[in-house]
Amino acid sequence: MEKFIITPKEDRTITMTIRIDRTLQEKYNELSAKTNRSRNELIGMALQYALDHMELKESGE
After folding, report:
1. Long-range pairs, 34-40, Cβ under 8 A, ≥24
2. C-beta separation of 42 from 28 below 8 A
3. Which of 14, 27, 30, 42 has the most crowded CB, counting CB atoms within 10 A?
4. Angle separating helix axes 39-52 and 22-35, nearest 10 degrees
5. CA-CA distance, 13 to 23, in Å (whole number)?
6. Residues 6+ apart with CB under 8 A from 39
7. Beta-carbon contacts of residue 32 (< 8 Å; ≥ 6 apart)
C-alpha cells in the first residue's frame, strides 16, 4: 500500500489593506457576481496584469 504523504503547505499569500474609490469597489462587486469569481481573485488578476504590461519611463524623457 502506498503512503499518504503530506508536505508543508506553501502559503504565498498575504493580507493587505488598501483604500479605493467606492465606484471601483462596486464595479468589482458586479464583475464578481457575473463571473462567479471572488472580488479578491479578480483584483489579484488585475494587479498581475498591470505588472506584466507596465512600462516605466525614466524621468526627463
Report:
1. none
2. yes
3. 42
4. 110
5. 26
6. 25, 28, 29, 31, 32
7. 38, 39, 42
Written as one letter, the residue type at 17 is T
Other Cβ atoms closer than 10 A to 34: 8
pLDDT tens-place values along the chain, 61 residues long: 899 998 888 888 899 999 999 999 999 999 999 999 999 999 999 999 999 999 999 887 6
For the chain, the C-alpha Rg in angstroms (whole number) is: 18
pTM of the model: 0.74
Half-sphere exposure for 42 (CA within 13 Å, toward CB): 16
User: What would the grid cell of residue 13 be?
Assistant: 499569500
Place of cell 524623457: 61
